[in-house]
Amino acid sequence: MRIGVFDSGAGGLSVVKSLLERQLFEEIIYYGDTARVPYGTKDKNTIVRYSLEALEFFNNFDIDLLITACNTVSAYALREMREVSSYDIVGVIEPGIRAVENKLDDKNAEILITGTRATIASGRYQNELGERGYRNLTALQTGLFVPLVEEGIFDGPILEETMHYYFKDIHNPAAIILGCTHFPIISTAIKDYFNSKPLMIHSGEAIVEYLAEHHGITSQCEQSDLKIFASDNVDGLRKIAKEWLSTL
Ligand code: DGL
Fold first, then answer.
1. What sign results for the dihedral spanned by CA atoms 155, 161, 162, 163?
2. What is the value of pTM for the model shown?
3. Distance from the CA of 106 to the center of ligand 1, in angstroms?
4. What is the CATH number of domain 94-203?
5. What percentage of the chain's residues is helix, strand, coil (to nearest 5)?
6. What is the pLDDT of residues 143-177, one digit of tens each?
7. For the segment 229-238, what is each residue's pLDDT rounded down to a tens digit?
8. Catalytic entry in 67, 70, 112, 217
């Protein structure tokens, strides 16, 4: 299968990493809209417009499936994207919710939901988890992590200070939803910040489980070919990909 993976920038590489680990697809076409990242600070109409424009990039390839590896786009634009495309489009929020259900039986467990301003404001994670009976939810906009990851800052004092800024009043969450695909790239730093060493819910791992459960995609291929494209500074994105994916 040839699939497309779309994110506003580098974050979707965290999903690609999970796909490559499982060798689910022969060909992965990655597109990061680096000219316009971040999406998470924009309004709904802008997010929808950017997402529809990004879809046009994939017209150059005959893809079988598109993974929208961006929570912000998944929160706002999936319906509009599906209306104009001939292939299946899978987002990351539904898989994330399924992953919580699969991994966390205790409905009173403290769950910290992190994400961009737009994703948190959409209330998608809060509402869906609330409907499933999870009662102890804290939602936090942590958008400054996005430019840090785009800059290739995965550890060190700036990240530590940013985590302190966001997390100083959060104590011992049982689980953290990395509700932005940029965040798994700094997942170890976030987990280590908390003494409780919370369970980390990651869109990439969640989507692998979801593709098996809902699309019957489990079979492995011998090799996966990854091609990376971007709307700006493709070399910068490829550099981050090399660094991040080389830990495979
Ligand atoms: N990686 C994206 C997400 O999952 C968003 C980053 C951004 O463009 O703000 O929400």
1. positive
2. 0.94
3. 29
4. 3.40.50.1860
5. 45, 20, 35
6. 999 999 988 899 999 999 999 999 999 989 999 99
7. 999 999 999 9
8. 70
